[in-house]
Design the sequence.
């Protein structure tokens, strides 16, 4: 990584931290902790494996399309998912651990406060199905 790339990366990191300080995070972040604590998956990767499923099931497809195509430059959500999966591999989590993670977030109102749509166990299961498809 060049000094300029490192500087850009650090600026992006600071901006992300400022945004999180104001808004908090959403579902992929909440789901990531079990994967990190129980399976030792690094935090960024643990969040990343839930992103494409989160976007797939998000309640506003216009907003998702804007993020995926306009902001991130992918042709579609499948291309974004494929890219992330190439980087991180398939989600490797036991059924028991996944249910603990899924049911834990659904039972925690603080983890759901930034998500404006209905969230169910079936929706969260679809996150994993979509990512690993
Ligand atoms: Fe984080």
Sequence:
């Amino acid at each position: 990584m060049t000094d300029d790339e490192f500087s850009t990366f650090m600026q992006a990191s600071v901006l992300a931290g400022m945004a999180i300080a104001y808004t908090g995070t959403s579902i992929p972040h909440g789901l990531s902790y079990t994967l990190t604590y129980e399976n030792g998956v690094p935090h960024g990767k643990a969040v990343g494996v839930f992103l494409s499923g989160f976007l797939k099931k998000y309640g506003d497809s216009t907003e998702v399309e804007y993020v995926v195509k306009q902001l991130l430059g992918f042709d579609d959500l499948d291309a974004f998912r494929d890219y992330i999966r190439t980087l991180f591999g398939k989600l490797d989590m036991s059924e028991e651990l996944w249910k603990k993670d899924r049911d834990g977030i659904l039972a925690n109102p603080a983890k759901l406060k930034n998500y404006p749509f209905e969230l169910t166990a079936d929706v969260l299961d679809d996150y994993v199905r979509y990512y690993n498809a």
About this structure: The domain at 27-132 is CATH 1.20.1090.10 (Dehydroquinate synthase-like, alpha domain). The chain has one domain: 27-132.
